[in-house]
Design brief:
Two copies of one chain form a homodimer. Chain A is an alpha+beta fold. Chain A has helices at 18-28, 60-68, 82-90, 99-106, 108-117, 131-135, 163-167, 226-242, 277-280, 285-293, 327-331, 362-375, and strands at 11-14, 34-38, 52-54, 72-75, 94-95, 125-128, 143-147, 157-160, 174-178, 182-192, 198-200, 204-208, 215-220, 247-256, 261-267, 307-313, 320-325, 336-340, 345-346, 351-358, 377-380. Chain A is built from twelve helices and 21 strands. In chain A, strands 10, 11, 12, 13, 14, 15, 16, 18 and 20 form a nine-stranded antiparallel sheet that branches. A five-stranded parallel sheet of chain A has the order 3-2-1-4-5, covered by helices on one side. In chain A, strands 6-9-7-8 form a four-stranded antiparallel sheet. In chain A, helix 1 packs across helix 10 (285-293), helix 2 (60-68) runs parallel beside helix 3 and helix 3 packs antiparallel against helix 4. Chain A is globular and about 60 Å long. The termini of chain A are far apart. The model of chain A has no long low-confidence stretch (mean pLDDT 94). Chain A binds chain B through residues 1, 3, 5, 7, 21, 25, 28-31, 33, 47-48, 50, 282, 291, 296-297, 299-300, 302, 304-305, 322-324, 327-328, 331-332, 334-335, 337-342, 344, 358, 381, and chain B through 1, 3, 5, 7, 21, 25, 28-31, 33, 47-48, 50, 282, 291, 296-297, 299-300, 302, 304-305, 322-324, 327-328, 331-332, 334-335, 337-342, 344, 358, 381.
Chain lengths: 382, 382
């Protein structure tokens, strides 16, 4: 009889970073076996599983061969060779998210068209062939300029305030978007399993630093009205149905000052905006993704305790062998959960881990966030 | 600078079963590296780490060599070569729990004497050299007959109701104990780190089947008065101080019908009575054990949600390649967390995994326990 617990059954993950690492962690208790394809031999998954293959995610043959050795293929990063996934899928291999969905996500132009065609609210936009065609237009500043392909973690997005800035912006195929002065930025993770069951996680909120224009931490649940929370969940559900989706999808949205929700971006995989679900919710985003792609019933996503999530970035001016300072101090605080990604070398702003903090009391939660933020540091070992 | 996150730093675990497996799982987020020594090449830890050594836990040289390759040594089973651990400890190696504590635990006679000498309440007892010396005594039936060394998971304990039963009991050095008609059996896990910080987990209760005399499931928190809970915590703390202890210690106690607490047994390692802490408490017993032996601040042990824990045993009359049935049905229930130990073959009553169930409502929690109990089964794949 067939079972995903059979020793020969493998879930293949394209990418071996922290998202893959946490996905593997959440599969241990279900007794799921994994294989990973990843270019960096020292990536976070490398010490966690035996079947770790070093190879390019963008090479057709490499992805095809890897996929053929697995029973289900999933991703932890979008920048993969979709042609290989299409071939695998055409040959009957289960690929979740579907290759067509990955293709859509890889291209912000296609993403925006998808929103438009399906009545998903999003900021007005225009597809741009190159910088020249843009120069000839009558433009209203500021606006947002994004490359269609290859952006990641903030790279590939510019806010353009005047023509000089535009001259130095991207020359690749791109989109321009209205600049949205938003009140909050929120995210909803939605899951859909192969049978079509759909569940959303309660919305989380990116909390910005009061003076610097930076996401300081993430807060769950988002401090928004029940009505807006409901609306956000409906939008994410609508997207999951239209894509179609198998797996999880993180949907980032702006809540505008006039209380409209506009979808900004999405990612069909575990996402930075869902880390805190490990401690804060009944089911984690990682467990939910596994359940979805293995076609198991989805877990309930209720919040157990309010939580906050801080990314742990390599300190500026520190490069080399990583050293954690302040760990004992933060572990002495109730409800603080550090997650290190096993990266042995640090560099400025490298994501070295994250910390989840839970607390019934919102004010005390915020105080703990500030304490952890100024106490826990990754420096280089000199 | 020294750190347990250095790639060359290893925590060595004697034993590679499910307790070691969950200990390793809880170390991933702290970025701790482990080595395991275990006689069974297919044990639950075997797929989880690279540095898995197949070897005897009772052989002096094997344990000594393994220990010398580690920075801290701990156990997940008491039946190990203590002489090797004493040598390692004398040579300056950190061994937690201390070898002297393991020695005490290995011998139920020494354990009982320890309780007596330190004013820890326990059932009256007598050390017995052999069956013959027992036969010549004037005995009151029923009483409990236990072998001093080598008992495990119920083996090595007989309730003796008459002289015929006594004739067929153990001939090894043993103890006899008054038979205690108890109201409840509870357990408290206590942790002490190297710096001397001590914390206890809220007591849990073994719930017995109404007709069969069997532990049906474990319930957290124990349904006992605040006063008894406090007393149980004090007893565990007293033991942790007297042993002395570094690591965690599970203390099983009887609550007698006249509301006295008597210590039955203890184990200086993660324990079956603490599995539910993974989901049910702010800190798990595994995380707490790691924090204690790494001399990190201990975590708070507050209950997040009431929980129950069911052992998942191999079905009777089933032997061979394991197959799980009913998994989808139980995953459809809110707050149900199966933990499979990665054992690919089953046999009757083999511990194949456990299930934790959380629910705010006690009645609904009990209903879920019954549903999981009759639904989830491990059979052989035919």
């Amino acid at each position: 009889m067939f079972s995903f617990q059979n020793k020969d059954f493998h879930v293949g993950i394209l990418g071996g970073g922290q998202l893959g690492r946490m996905l593997i962690q959440s599969g241990i208790d279900l007794d799921v076996s994994f294989k990973v394809l990843e270019p960096d031999a020292n990536a976070p998954c490398s010490k966690l599983i035996e079947k770790f293959t070093v190879g390019s995610l963008s090479d057709y043959e490499t992805v095809l061969n890897f996929g053929n050795s697995c029973d289900i293929i999933t991703i932890e990063i979008e920048h993969v060779n979709v042609e290989a996934l299409l071939t695998l899928n055409n040959n009957g291999k289960k690929v979740f998210p579907y290759p067509q969905t990955i293709q859509l996500i890889q291209d912000k132009g296609l993403q925006k068209q998808f929103y438009k065609e399906n009545g998903i609210p999003t900021a007005p936009f225009q597809l741009i062939e190159g910088l020249e065609s843009l120069m000839n237009q009558d433009l209203t500043y500021p606006f947002v300029h994004k490359i269609r392909k290859g952006g990641y973690d903030g790279r590939g997005v510019n806010v353009i305030k005047n023509q000089d800035e535009l001259k130095n912006s991207f020359t690749e195929p791109s989109i321009i978007e209205d600049f949205i002065p938003f009140e909050k930025e929120i995210a909803v993770i939605v899951a859909r399993n192969e049978s079509g069951e759909i569940k959303t996680f309660p919305a989380v909120e990116m909390v910005f630093h009061p003076t610097a224009n930076l996401v300081e931490y993430l807060f769950s649940p988002a401090q928004i009205s029940e009505e807006i929370a409901q609306k956000a969940s409906e939008i994410a559900t609508q997207i999951a149905k239209k894509l179609p989706l198998v797996g999880i999808l993180a949907v980032e949205m702006f809540l505008t000052k006039d209380q409209r929700l506009l979808v900004n971006e999405m990612a069909p995989r575990p996402h930075n905006s869902g880390h805190q679900t490990i401690e804060g919710n009944l089911t984690s985003q990682y467990q939910q993704h596994l359940r979805a792609i293995l076609n198991l019933p989805l877990g309930e996503t209720d919040i157990v305790l309010p939580s906050a999530m801080l990314n742990l970035l390599g300190e500026e001016n520190h490069q080399g062998e990583a050293l954690t300072i302040g760990l004992k101090d933060i572990l002495a605080i109730k409800g603080v959960y550090p997650h290190f990604y096993g990266k042995k070398t640090t560099k400025p702003f490298r994501k070295m881990g994250h910390v989840t903090i839970v607390d019934e009391n919102i004010e005390s939660l915020k105080e703990k966030v500030n304490f952890v933020k100024r106490t826990l540091k990754i420096i280089s070992n000199k």
